């Protein structure tokens, strides 16, 4: 499991004084950087050969400005050409959001998905969440 911390910023609030719902997927993406480094340790974005097929976010509780948010991230499932990443966000010890992202291993030169290479599968398995 990976952990990332975010300090909500004033401009991330909405008209109701809560953190805007569009911010959480951005935090989740930033929290996936360690997973991206499995595919390209140097974070060469041109070498990052995965794409997003699906994003789900469940907003469990209100998120407020002024209190740090901690996001836990790991691997939920590994398939032949895709893998699912899970996220859970906490503020002041309370679960405030959770979600998942389906990434597909993608060959940009062929413009199609392909099988995940075994070394990448093995690296992802190290972060697989126990059921």
From TrEMBL:
It holds the Pfam family 4HBT_2. The keyword Hydrolase applies. Keywords: Hydrolase. GO terms for molecular function: fatty acyl-CoA hydrolase activity. The keyword Hydrolase applies. SUPFAM superfamilies: Thioesterase/thiol ester dehydrase-isomerase. Belongs to the 4-hydroxybenzoyl-CoA thioesterase family. This is Acyl-CoA thioester hydrolase. It comes from Fluviicoccus keumensis.
């Amino acid at each position: 499991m990976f952990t990332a911390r975010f300090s909500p910023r004033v401009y991330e609030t909405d008209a109701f004084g809560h953190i805007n719902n569009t911010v959480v997927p951005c935090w989740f993406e930033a929290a996936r950087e360690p997973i991206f480094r499995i595919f390209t340790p140097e974070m060469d974005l041109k070498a990052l050969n995965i794409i997003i097929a699906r994003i789900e976010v469940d907003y469990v509780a209100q998120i407020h400005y002024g209190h740090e948010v901690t996001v836990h991230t790991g691997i939920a499932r590994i398939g032949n050409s895709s893998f699912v990443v899970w996220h859970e966000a906490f503020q002041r010890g309370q679960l405030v959001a959770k979600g998942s992202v389906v990434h597909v291993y993608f060959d940009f030169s062929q413009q199609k998905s392909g099988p995940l290479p075994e070394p990448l599968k093995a690296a992802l398995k190290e972060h697989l969440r126990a059921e």
